[in-house]
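Regression check, zinc ion case 285:
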Amino acid sequence: MRNALTIDVEEYFQAHAYEKVIDRRDWERLPARVVENTRRLLALLAENRTHATFFVLGWVAERHPTLVAEIAAAGHEIGSHGHAHELLYRQTRDEFASDLARSLAAIRRALGGADGVLGYRAPGFSLTDASLWALDVLRTHGLRYDSSLQPVDANGALRGGKRTGFSGAGRFAVRLGAGLWEFPVSTVHFAGRNWPVAGGGWFRLLPLAVTRRAIARINAEGQPAIVYLHPWELDPDEPPVPGAPALSRFRHRVNVDRTEARLRLLLAEGEFGPLRQVFAAELAS
Ligand SMILES: [Zn+2]
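Current build output:
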């Protein structure tokens, strides 16, 4: 079974682990790493003849349009990660609508016209009960799917207070109506709860064997896995962030020096593709 590989294209200093110590106004003056790190990923994917979905932050697309063009030229799917990397439930509906529109416009400019963007992923998987209105905004902008749901942690206990998931959310692809699909990032149900083992810090923290077993288990349920990563997770040379609490630093940096090798092994073993391909039948229906 082909699984989905998704990459959220953003700078390391935009990660939520650092939001208490890095002011948004400082983003402009911090050393940019996203181009180099994304190119490292592109090379690794080319080596394995694998394509992925890249959810690009509008802030990045405005500053590095050639990077967006490079990703698309290599045959990958481009989606939107919004513009300013603000959690959905911290925005009003109108704020979100302009954030999304700005990101789509930046992507369209970078690609020289029609963007063909089908999908969106919210920063921090922040689609919760408090932000379900975002789905209507996605429809209004002609998007066909959302991948912002991580049905694990409605009270934020595992994620430093950051909430994900919403009540009644399932673990697998579901048609939301009016032409929109939800493709939740993968979780494994174990010991009475859902664990987000297939991406990010969990991918780096847990042994690769656990990730492999999780993917096999999801596939045994008849479903493709949806794995996610960020370019900064392949960057052992990220500049230190002064004042970052030890836990944030740990969550952001644990095993970054091993991510590339792990991903290479995972790609060599299994077939991965972009969401639009893995869920082509759903999107066509
Ligand atoms: Zn993000």
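Comparison notes: The longest strand covers residues 3-9. The mean pLDDT is 91. No diff flagged against the previous build.
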